[in-house]
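Dear Dr. L.,

I hope this message finds you well. Following up on our conversation about the binding site, I have prepared a predicted three-dimensional model of the protein together with zinc ion. For your records, I am including the exact sequence and ligand specification that went into the calculation, followed by the structure tokens. Please feel free to forward this to your student if that is useful.
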Amino acid sequence: MILLSKFKPIRFRLPACGALLALLLGVGCGEEPDPLRGVILIAIDTLRADRVGAYGAARPTPALDGLAEQGVLFENTISYGARTRPSFAATLSGRFPTRRDFDRVLLRSLVSRLKNGGFQTVAFTEGGELSRIYGFDRGFDYWWEQETPVTARDSLSPGIDRTFSMAQDWLRDAAGDQRFFLFLHTYEVHLPYRRLEYAKAIPRGDFPVTFETGDVGRLAAGELEAGVTERNYVNALYDGGVAMADRHVGNLLEVLEETGRRENTLIVVLSDHGEELGERLSHYLGGHGHTLYDELLRVPLIIHDPLRTYPEKRVRAQVRSIDVLPTILDRVGLTLPADSHGKSLLPVMEGRMRSDRMALSQTFKNGVKLRSAVRAKSRKLVRNSPRAEPVLPRTQAFDLRVDPGEESNEIHENPTWVGEFQVFLDNHETLERREGVPHFGSPKDMPAELKERLRSLGYVE
Ligand SMILES: [Zn+2]
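The resulting structure of the complex is given below.
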């Protein structure tokens, strides 16, 4: 049992009926309050959509598949970032970030709207690129993050076990009666890959038993070579992490059941980006952030609302991760800033809106943009800087209906759709000229512990 005192920063407030509260919550004193008591956003970092059973993966993910069965699954969800920090900056703000809004602090975080709307806002995260040092704790009453290196997670830092048990203890012992927004984040699926569940039964060729962050560098340096056997092995290790994350989601659902919260808690599952698993270049195995190909941008998105039935069970229209917080705000009756780029998905879930939403995705290094892509469900245009590794053509155009693997660049055939996509990217560049390209760099005064944790995740040289 964990003492309640560890959650001390949270202030408990029972709702009282008053004019201000009624204004904030959008209810009058005589009206029935919304029976929805809580929202849980579960972010499984680095989880590719195609590795979830409900998205067609060969290996099952029973907890996520069950949630998808009961809720709404979005088949085509595109992330803004191919790395953690840009991606969460966009998701938590509902915006395609510019420097004005995101220079170290998430000035536009929509979490503040939930807090101001009467929700206690709580986060249990695995830190690193999602550390409070970058301002991600903005709007949260209580923010907890893991601080020891992930490479030590079997001894010093127990990773997902700790994160999820903290959240479960909070739900059992500290959540109280106030409505809540709980943000839960794990690096379980991220490097290092150490879950042998599927891997132990198959050959590993020349590879070590577990796949560590240092092995990515050894691959790039040619000290390790990944053939079909090794790639299959690493894929099985990755899927072992997915299975572990799925089990923890299952445990969390049981705790919600136990505490009587399952029937009045909205659950959203999302990832921030995918992962390279050797399908494109054999040495791009176990990493992300290099490119904007679909294995990095297609993420799972499942929403289960126990209090409402939506006619759309599997949404085929393309949506974006920036639409997730606007959807949560809409569902709890809070307004969205007028200049938000993200929009609520409720009309999509209700079958009133079926059009694709244009998705912007970008990569950066030290305040310099390296790549940007605009994607509709069947088409994608990518602009690459010659400074980006690997070096790719300056402009790539893919017709995803006939070329889902993005292997055939059609830019020289000058397809008619390209113009509209160029204008979309040009417009965003105009905004960036006015408001600045976000830096997403690390502060000089970064604490030593965070530096070590980032190094263990492969982010600091
Ligand atoms: Zn990430």
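In brief: The mean pLDDT is 89.

With kind regards,
A. P.
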